[in-house]
Write a structure and sequence with these properties.
It is a single chain. The protein has 8 helices and 4 strands; from the N terminus they run βαβαββαααααα. The protein is of the alpha+beta class. It folds into 2 domains: about 80 residues, Glutaredoxin (3-Layer(aba) Sandwich); about 110 residues, Glutathione S-transferase Yfyf (Class Pi), Chain A, domain 2. Strands 2-1-3-4 form a 4-stranded mixed sheet, covered by helices on one side. The longest helix is centred in the middle third of the chain and has 31 residues. The mean pLDDT is about 95.
C-alpha cells in the first residue's frame, strides 16, 4: 500500500490522477500546507522541503518527492503510461523535464502575481502572462497532428502538463484560441480517472478574481 501525502493543489492532483489511472492501492495523508502542516517536524522528516506531493512506498523502502519523478516511478512500477525503453522513453523524459522546468515555474508565477499576490505588481503580471502565452503556443505546436504529447498514446506526460492547465482554466486563463491545446485539454479532462484525480483529497479552492496590470 502506497502512502500519498497531498493537498488540493496542482502538483498533488497530478499524482492523484496517475494513481487513479494505474489502479494502484493507496492511502491519502492530507497535509494542509496553507495551514503550515508542511512545516511540522513530522512532515519535514519525510520531506525536508515541506512540500507536497510525497509518495512513501514501504515495500520498496522509498520516499519520493517531486511530482514528475513520482509520475515516472508509478508508471514504471506498473509498466503503463510511459514507454519502457528507446527513443520514445527519452522523449517522454525530455517532456517531463520541460514541464518541470518551464510550464510549472512560469504558470506558478503567473498564478502568484495574477491571482494570489496581496498587492498588484503590474510588471509581474505582464511578464508571467506573456510567458504563459509563449508556453501555450509551444504546447499547441507540440500537439500538432497528434492526440497526446507522445502521439496516439496517453501518458504521464499528458498528466504532468494537464495539472497546471486545469488550474489555469479555473483561474480564468483562456487558451481556446490554441486549437490543438484546447482539444487536448478536453480529451484528457474527459477521462474518468482524471475527473476523480482532481478531487483528491479535495478540489482546488475557489480562486480570487484575477488582477490586471
Amino acid at each position: 500500500m502506497l502512502e500519498f501525502f497531498t493537498f488540493g493543489s496542482t502538483n498533488g492532483h497530478k499524482v492523484a490522477i496517475a494513481l487513479e489511472e494505474l489502479g494502484l492501492p493507496y492511502e491519502v495523508r492530507t497535509v494542509n500546507v496553507f495551514a503550515g502542516e508542511g512545516q511540522s517536524p513530522e512532515f519535514l522528516a519525510i520531506n525536508p522541503t515541506g512540500k507536497i506531493p510525497v509518495i512513501r512506498d514501504r515495500e520498496a523502502d522509498l520516499i519520493l518527492t517531486e511530482s514528475d519523478a513520482i509520475l515516472l516511478y508509478l508508471a514504471d512500477k506498473v509498466g503503463r503510461l510511459v514507454p519502457p525503453s528507446g527513443k520514445e522513453r527519452m522523449r517522454a523524459i525530455e517532456l517531463l523535464f520541460l514541464q518541470a522546468s518551464l510550464q510549472g515555474p512560469m504558470f506558478g508565477q503567473r498564478m502568484h502575481f495574477s491571482v494570489f499576490s496581496a498587492e498588484t505588481v503590474p510588471y509581474g503580471i505582464r511578464r508571467y502572462e506573456e510567458q504563459g502565452e509563449i508556453i501555450d503556443e509551444l504546447v499547441d505546436h507540440l500537439l500538432s497532428g497528434r492526440s497526446y504529447f507522445l502521439g496516439s498514446e496517453y501518458s504521464i506526460v499528458d498528466i504532468a502538463f494537464y495539472g497546471w492547465y486545469f488550474a489555469a482554466k479555473r483561474a480564468g486563463f483562456d487558451f481556446t484560441q490554441h486549437t490543438n491545446l484546447d482539444e487536448w485539454f478536453e480529451r484528457v479532462g474527459s477521462r474518468p480517472a482524471v475527473a476523480r484525480g482532481v478531487t483528491i483529497p479535495s478540489r482546488l479552492p475557489k480562486l480570487p478574481p484575477r488582477k490586471r496590470p
